[in-house]
TrEMBL record:
GO terms for molecular function: zinc ion binding. It comes from Esox lucius. The keyword Zinc applies. It is found in: Membrane. Keywords: Membrane, Metal-binding, Transmembrane, Transmembrane helix, Zinc, Zinc-finger. This is Tetraspanin. InterPro entries: Tetraspanin/Peripherin, Tetraspanin_animals, Tetraspanin_CS, Tetraspanin_EC2_sf, Znf_SWIM.
């Protein structure tokens, strides 16, 4: 490999590791969002699902590791240190294998995950009181913004304990169909209805969520493929640079 090619490979690898560092920061940020967010669909699942909490910690760990790898990769590329380049290649290979394994497991376990999610949300609907609970207010926000009602449909609310024990007909206020005429619309809690027909959306939130995933599936797959290609490119560049380094010169490494 000529000196010009080595220099080009070195700086391409440096830029790649800079991108990898940024991707790591984004992954860690997403993990923190899953762990701390209280205004999205995630918050509804988080309180009852230990799996989601574990997944958020895994994302934070992977993001932190990716940032550390990006930093070490930058140092190894600029100063041509073979041991760092070899360690970087090995870690990147392990991460790629872990990502593929996780994707395969999620694909083949998707029905059981969907079943677990359904049980969590249906259990929350049964015990819904409309009080100041994060999960309940988050679910109200989801129903309003996604224009849906219940998990599979508005019939899920008929299993609610408070609705069953009430002497007056009640429905979820956040299910209120804003296109229908009627009284002022409340954002949370349970509302009384006087008409024979419930003034609510007829679509379950599972259908709205599946529709959103289907509409954005191309973007999701594109991101996953893009990350895998970038990782493979980084492995190739690090291996090429590692093979081109005949003798390491540690005098170039800054000493503090």
């Amino acid at each position: 490999m000529t000196k010009g090619c080595i220099t080009a490979t070195k700086y391409f690898l440096f830029l790649f590791n800079l991108l990898f560092f940024i991707f790591g920061a984004l992954i860690m940020g997403f993990g923190l969002w899953v762990l701390l967010d209280n205004q999205s669909f995630i918050a509804v699942l988080q309180e009852s699902s230990t799996t989601l909490q574990v997944a958020s910690y895994i994302l934070i760990s992977v993001g932190s590791l990716s940032m550390a790898m990006g930093f070490l990769g930058c140092i190894g590329a600029i100063y041509e240190i073979r041991c760092l380049l070899g360690l970087y290649f090995t870690c990147l290979l392990l991460i790629l294998i872990a990502q593929v394994t996780a994707g395969v497991l999620i694909y083949f376990q998707r029905e059981s995950l969907k079943h677990e999610m359904s049980n969590i949300i249906k259990g929350m609907l049964v015990n819904y009181t409309g009080q100041n609970r994060t999960t309940e207010h988050t679910w109200d926000y989801i129903q309003r913004t996604m224009m849906c009602c219940g998990w599979t449909g508005p019939g899920n609310w008929s299993e609610n304990v408070q609705i069953q024990n009430s002497s007056i007909p009640l429905y979820s206020c956040s299910c209120r169909n804003i296109t229908l005429p009627g009284t002022d619309i409340a954002e949370t809690g349970l509302c009384e209805h006087l008409s024979a027909e419930l003034p609510v959306y007829q679509t379950g939130c599972i259908h709205s969520a599946e529709s959103w995933l289907w509409q954005n599936s191309g973007v999701i797959v594109g991101i996953c493929v893009g990350v895998a290609v970038i990782e493979l490119l980084g492995m190739l560049l690090s291996m090429c640079l590692c093979r081109s380094v005949v003798q390491e010169d540690y005098s170039k490494v800054p000493k503090y």
